[in-house]
């Protein structure tokens, strides 16, 4: 694709991952969250193709998501069509709301840390990576081996993870730090240097894109690619950022600037990206589908609050 505003295969892009086609299916179906009609697979394949995903990889991603129960398929004549499965719609909407809300404002902090201490015997060592993954997903960081922390209090989720994994030798408590000049820096539990670099990379990606939007020189095809890339990167940041209180972070922390650019990109690229989606879908011979509907970040968050 000539003149693409954002290279979806650029270093650091979540769209480089092997699971990228499946992520893209979810992101494209997000255009139809408010509509329960089936989307022909040919249209979804065309959309994925606009991001450089080959037909075989696109159809494989659709099949995997359907086998997992994330998508529901049906036959439309000789063609297959998909929509989000009933059990996936609420989860997908919740994920979208979390992505859009992420970084929208500081969260109050009571200066207490949640600590999880656990011991897993060698005979049960297979549980260790599973528990570590669960704790990472809850945005805890490892201060020491078997000692994980977070300034938040996801107590029910932590307890559920320990119970489901059968980790009985564990304790969870909320404490305040006693600062010591030679003590361990609690923030060392996370790779903040890498996280800063990821935020800066998003800023570097979006600034020229938004410049072209303001100039009116960005084609619809590039707008779709840029918007998908921005959402994929912001979603990845939301998943990896531990949500540390502002008072613990340096004054030049780049999250605020990155969010400003992401929101502007999401909102201003939306109409052009939607036009491109309509164009791609209508280009598939014999295919008709419900029209997508773009909503601004503020509208999405307001709908979430009122709903």
The rounded Rg comes to 22 Å
DSSP summary, beta strand count: 7
Write down the overall geometry: globular
Helical fraction: 40-55%
Integer average pLDDT: 86
Q: Give start-end ranges of low-pLDDT stretches.
A: 1-9
* SS content category: alpha+beta
- What's the end-to-end separation, in Å? 40 Å
Main pleated-sheet profile: 4 strands, antiparallel
Oligomer: single chain
Strand content: 5-15%
Neighbour order of strands in the largest sheet: 5-6-4-7
Order of helical and strand elements: HEHHEEHEHEEHEHHHH
Helical region count? Answer: 10
Structure description:
The chain has 307 residues and is of the alpha+beta class. It contains 10 helices and 7 strands. A 4-stranded antiparallel beta sheet has the order 5-6-4-7, with helices on one face. A hairpin with a 2-residue loop joins strand 5 (141-144) and strand 6 (147-150). Helix 7 packs across helix 9. The longest helix has 28 residues, at 255-282. The chain is globular. Residues 1-9 have low confidence and may be disordered.
